[in-house]
TrEMBL record:
Region (Disordered): 38-70, 178-198
Domain NB-ARC: 94-301
Taxonomic placement: Eukaryota, Viridiplantae, Streptophyta, Embryophyta, Tracheophyta
Coiled coil start-end: none
Organism superkingdom: Eukaryota
Pfam families per the UniProt record, alphabetical: NB-ARC (PF00931)
Segments passing through the bilayer: none
Protein name, per record: Probable disease resistance protein At4g19060 isoform X2
Gene this protein is translated from: LOC104718412
PANTHER family attached to this UniProt entry: DISEASE RESISTANCE PROTEIN RP, DISEASE RESISTANCE PROTEIN RPM1
Biased composition regions of type Low complexity, renumbered to the chain: 50-61
């Protein structure tokens, strides 16, 4: 256990070093993209890795807000580069989705890991697998951050609405649901009836009922990508005992048609609140295979500079790459951009020593 803690601490220190080296390049990238859409693979910040602060003397949770640099909207589209180094993880995820395909049991799975280890890429790969496409209809990808979200929108309501939009529900229905909730609350207040349920809770319960109705009888797959504390999705989704609470998130997901929900997060404690048992967690660690990290780097250099990397000393080169990237796929790809290769006098490819 002590050895594992030491290893994790060393990785954290190396990630901090990489972040310091990336700061200048990130500032340049950010200035180019402030007015455009963000890319999952363009965001270099590794801030915000710590778990939310919880008051040990009470059940109070101080919700950790998503840092601005991590406001990245993802999609189900495959990345624009070849995927390396996730053979075992891909097999595990496909097994989760395709083994016992006829099972009617509702299941959840959380993929947990540091920023840049490939959680989103792994899910995109499996989400677009042909067997998975045939087995699950509908398939819905939800980026938990969305540029379209209004500042005053309730986080839970926002996500449920976006899932419903993917199912073809139009905004007019949402306005109708909100109006109904407001009118019900107003009429009960006027009648002097005591009620603890707020307008937002009434609206959420109606939206969850609509979601349940639209998914009922369907073998659905929903991916909730990059869940943070500020999304307020912190309720166990397979908790059938809480379905009597109409605004509980589990009410939105029918349990008898073989549906699956996969979430990704950097926060293990939050993931456990949503999927429950440890067996429902899949940890995604930095790559330990130098060859796959090398392939990631080489592809990124080729894409950026249109050249092949042919180091004079391949073994030393690959080990240095592993030491600097810590096996983090995103770090390897970004090292290819900020530490580019150059041609020496003999015609061999060597990297510029930028740090």
């Amino acid at each position: 256990m002590e050895q594992a803690k030491k290893s994790t601490s060393e990785i954290d220190e190396k990630l901090d070093t990489i972040k310091l080296s990336f700061d200048i390049e990130y500032a340049k990238w950010l200035s180019r993209n402030q007015s455009g859409s963000f890319s999952k693979h363009g965001n270099l910040s590794i801030d915000g890795e710590s778990s939310p602060t919880r008051n040990s003397s009470s059940s109070t949770t101080i919700r950790k807000r998503r840092p601005k640099a991590n406001c990245v909207e993802t999609s189900s589209e495959l990345p624009d580069h070849e995927i390396h180094g996730f053979v075992n993880e891909t097999l595990f995820l496909k097994n989760f989705l395709l083994k016992q395909k006829e099972s009617k049991e509702f299941k959840t799975l959380a993929i947990v890991g540091k920023y840049g280890v490939g959680k989103t890429t792994l899910c995109q790969d499996v989400f677009n697998n042909e067997e998975v496409k045939q087995a699950y209809i509908p398939r819905i990808w939800v980026s938990m951050y969305s540029k379209e979200t209004k500042e005053d929108e309730d986080p839970k309501i926002d996500v449920v609405k976006r899932i419903l939009r993917s199912l073809g529900v139009e905004d007019e229905m949402f306005e109708h649901i909100k109006t109904e909730a407001e009118e019900e609350k107003r009429s009960k207040d006027e009648a002097g009836e005591t009620e603890e349920e707020t307008v937002k809770e009434k609206e959420l319960s109606r939206l969850l009922y609509a979601l349940h109705s639209n998914l009922l009888g369907k073998k659905y797959l929903i991916v909730l990508d990059d869940v943070w504390e500020d999304n307020e999705w912190d309720q166990r989704l397979d908790d059938e005992t809480s379905q009597q609470e109409r605004s509980h998130l589990s009410c939105g997901f029918p349990k008898g048609s073989g549906g699956r929900v996969i979430m990704t997060s950097r926060d293990e404690s939050l993931a456990k609140e949503i999927v429950g048992e440890e067996e429902n967690l899949q940890h995604l660690f930095p790559r330990s295979d130098a060859e796959s990290v090398w392939e990631m780097y080489k592809d990124a250099v080729k894409a950026a500079l249109k050249i092949e990397v042919k180091p004079r000393y391949p073994g030393r080169f690959k080990q240095e790459l592993m030491d600097k990237s810590c096996g983090i796929p995103l770090a390897a790809r970004m090292l290819a951009k900020i530490e580019p290769v150059k041609m020496d006098e003999t015609g061999d490819m060597e990297r510029k020593k930028s740090f």
